[in-house]
Design goal:
With 179 residues, the protein is mainly alpha-helical. It is 88% helix and 0% strand. It has one domain: Ferritin, core subunit, four-helix bundle (Ferritin, Up-down Bundle), CATH 1.20.1260.10. Bound molecules: fe (ii) ion.
Length: 179
């Protein structure tokens, strides 16, 4: 096999394993999320992930290769960190817990964006435009998911700021009254 094609198949096998892990991790992230929009974002991405697994399988078919996953240690680590974030979130304020979930999820998205970007370049390089097209579709979904997470974090950060400002002005008032 051409060495670039071999590399592409290897990347796709890594991504297949990564996506498979997300199919079990995303429902847990959704369950842990407080904000309904964040919950919804995780559940939507779960649905997209199912489609992405399907696209990867189609890509293997186009390349005439078996869709065998290769253990993706990086995603295993990211998913473990996500599980830790969920656990730590039980001791955190609602907003901080959600922001930590967003941070964990964005790490995942960035890993996937990098993997799909490389795989697409390889597919283009070896003259597999149909495979590249499938990867572009998934890449677009990962990028939108990342963008959406950033957008969801903004009002949460603002809310956290105004809550701490309020708490600060309250404690100043009490200090004045007791002085
Ligand atoms: Fe994905």
């Amino acid at each position: 096999m051409n060495q670039l094609k071999e590399l592409l198949v290897d990347e796709l096998r890594d991504l297949l394993h990564a996506e498979g892990q997300l199919l079990t991790a995303l429902p847990k992230m959704a369950e842990a999320a407080h904000h309904p929009k964040l919950k919804e974002a995780f559940l939507n991405h779960l649905q997209q992930t199912e489609g992405q697994v399907g696209r990867l399988k189609s890509a293997f078919g186009l390349l005439g290769e078996k869709a065998v996953p290769k253990p993706c240690k990086a995603m295993t680590g990211l998913v473990e960190e996500g599980a830790e974030t969920i656990k730590e979130g039980t001791d955190r304020e609602r907003i901080a817990a959600d922001l930590a979930l967003i941070a964990a999820a964005q790490r995942v998205e960035h890993y996937e964006i990098s993997g799909y970007g490389t795989a697409r370049s390889l597919a283009r390089q070896i003259g597999e435009p149909d495979v590249a097209k499938l990867l572009t579709q998934t890449l677009g979904e990962e990028e939108s998911a990342d963008f959406l997470l950033t957008e969801l974090s903004k009002p949460l950060m603002q809310e956290a700021c105004s809550e701490s400002n309020l708490a600060e002005s309250k404690s100043k008032k009490t200090r004045k009254q007791t002085a």
